[in-house]
Structure formats: C-alpha cells, structure tokens
Design goal:
The chain has 2 helices and 4 strands. With 82 residues, the protein is an alpha+beta fold. It has a two-stranded antiparallel ribbon with strand order 1-2. It has a two-stranded antiparallel sheet with strand order 3-4. The longest helix has 7 residues.
C-alpha cells in the first residue's frame, strides 16, 4: 500500500491508511518512535506506555540514587532552609 508525504505546518506528515492502522492495532494518540536506518529506510516502532510520575518514583532505589554533592557556599538568595 502506498501513501504520500504531505506538508503539515513546518513538518511533513503521512496519513496511515486504515487497513495498516488496523493491522498494527494503532489508535489515536499512540506514541511511536521514528528512526532512519543507514540506507534511508524509515522505521516506526511502538513505544511502550508512558510511565506516570508515581511509576518512575517507585523505581528509585538506594542503589540508583546519587548522593548529595556540594557546589560550594550559597551565594545571594539561593540558600534554602528546611
């Protein structure tokens, strides 16, 4: 099946035909990763679900946390009192 590259604002776009979207189970708003191979072939890959902040925070462990570092004494109004 063929599609044509069209102008969309300052970008280019293609319309994905319904049979292709159905076969790929694409839905409106699905995130896709677009890459270009060395030979100029355009590849699209479905990106996994976008994690929520709570899911990202849940992945923080003592092993992947950085220790606090000092950048020197506070200057001006940047001092924070806890």
């Amino acid at each position: 099946m063929q599609a044509q590259v069209m102008k969309w604002g300052n970008s280019l776009a293609i319309r994905i035909p319904k049979p292709i979207a159905d076969d790929a189970r694409l839905q409106l708003g699905d995130p896709l990763e677009i890459a270009v191979a060395a030979d100029g072939v355009v590849q699209m890959h479905r990106v996994g679900e976008i994690p929520t902040l709570a899911q990202l925070v849940a992945q923080i462990t003592p092993e992947n946390r950085y220790a606090e570092i000092s950048l020197g004494p506070e200057v001006g109004r940047e001092a924070v009192e806890w």
